Amino acid sequence: MTTPQQQQFVNLSSALTGVKAAQLQPAIDQIGIARQYLAMIQSKASKVRAEDFDNLLATFTAKSAELGPEQAAAFVLADPTLGPIARSIIKMWLLGTWYDPSNPGTAIQVVSMQAYKESLVWKVMQSHPMGYSMWSFGYWAGPPPAFDQFIQVNQESSANG
Amino acid sequence: MHLIHRRLLAPAAATVALSLLTGCPDANKTAKQSPTPAPEVTVASPSASPSTSPSRSLPTLSPDIPFDVIVAEKKPNLESLQHDFDVLSWNTFVALNWPAKPDGQPDTSTQIGQNKDAPTVWQSWKKTYEIFLPGGAAPPPWGTTPSPSTDWPPICKPLAKDGTTLLSQVGKTPNLLMDTTEPFKTGPLIDQNGRYARFEIVVNKPMFDAILTNKLYSKEGQRSAAKVVFPCGSADPAPGNAGAIMVKASWKILSDDEKKSGRFHVIEAVVYTPPSKEPPVVEKCEAMTLGLVGMHIVHKTGSAPQWVWSTFEHVDNCPSAGETPSKPQYNFFNKTSPAPSPNEPPPRPWDPNKTEPPDRRVQVVRQIPIPRPEKALTARYHEALRKVNPDSVWLNYELVNTQWPTNPAATCDVETSAPVDRIGTPAPQFLGNSTLETYIQGQVPNVSSSCMECHANATTYTSQRPSNIPIFSDFTFLLERAQ
Questions:
Q1: Which of A1, A20, A23, A28 best tests the B interface by mutation, with the highest count of B CBs <10 A?
Q2: N or C: which end of chain B has fewer CB within 10 A?
Q3: What is the number of structural domains in chain B?
Q4: How far apart, in whole angstroms, are the C-alpha atoms of residue B30 and residue B208?
Q5: Where are the domains of chain A?
């Protein structure tokens, strides 16, 4: 069951990554990667203060209602306190790894085994995780499926690439 | 009630199809189904929780094989859909284990378990050794195989009687004792009597017809194959739309006490042990009484083109991890076993003709305990079975779990319609039967037992591709057996 906070986190993540919320958190969500990522941020290991994260969600939600999600994402990214957390969230979705917001080059941990294989970077490169291919034998002899088979992009985010 | 599909509920497309460059025959239309109304048992079920019990009436025990899952909730979620697929598993288990008439059709004059035990519907289906014949010869059409088959090993023929089953596999995979290139750590399963478990795989008529029509039974036939797509069970419950079904069964050789116990579904079978030079194994064929200990049912449906993977076990097989063993004895576990550690293959050499000493008997523990909802559903079906016969042999079998695609392919042609998420994000992610995936249980992606993850790698033996590179065989490894 999705809590209001989890839904806010998914909405924020969708705006930050440009990937549709329905892909980040499917209606029938067997893996629960959004839930895992949220738990990562809320853990002590993330080095994120609870009030800062709450402020990030609240600010994004309020600005999103006012300006739309894309402008709201730009707003929080420009904020000196919220921006580093938002950038770590983008990296977490892309790489499955949580980076210290105050030391952006420092990876704290791969979130989980699932996070490794669910990282969006594999889909962005139209490939599959190393050591985890579910494609058919001999797939390497042909071109990969089209990009939109891998990633469902928000219409309004397409300008951001 | 609704039929599920495609991220919830688009109508199931579900026509058949084994599409090859040479054509797209409609194998479903050749399947037989006998839609027979079954008597409904309506007694309150005290054991079921509200989440697993949409109605208080007991399940209907029917000889009709379900065509597809039925979604009970208007707004289904992961848990409710798991329940729906579990119901499909149990209904299929009941239909497949319904007492069979000599022609293999369900005997609708009786009920499952009414006479305690009887030959079942699936046991008349095509066995792998009847499909993939020496020299790639075409198997005779459904219903025309001489019984017993003329392709039995010569040493077994004197034991052949009408309708006798031949069990010739000592592992889930073929040629276990001879094959040194197993895809993963595996080995024979030795029970607590020291005897080797035996295995078989059978397919239903729609699947067999698809193999036959498209000549996939031989290497030569596979050389013209551009694609393999087995028929899906249809949303339209018309005769012939059941879809492709495979059954993998594991059997244990019963002791005299076990024969008398009445706790096993029993067959009288001819057990063949193939010869081997290294390790030295003598060719042998014996008539034996065996009891069913494990059963995979794999069903391709319109809502689950990646197939529905149901698995059942005998209740006495083994304890689960973290559970205190409460039974005086198990089929594959001994509280005082001298075996070094659980779920480890027995050390070589292996000789299925032997009765192995205690320290070579496999100590099996179910790594992932059966979840509470599945246990509750099994309790409801047991209640219905008990109403038919308090001594029904089927009260000794339980659903372990059902794996199904949460992101199903859009059409029955999985390779084309699910190019990225080929396996459809299965739920649960891991599933194993303690008698069929004994040594690969666990929860490590791409390593531990997951029906769909493993079978997504299945291919034909050859194809029309350049250099005869094999092609995706629609989740079955059987086609690799073509000669």
A1: A28
A2: N
A3: 1
A4: 10
A5: 4-133+142-153
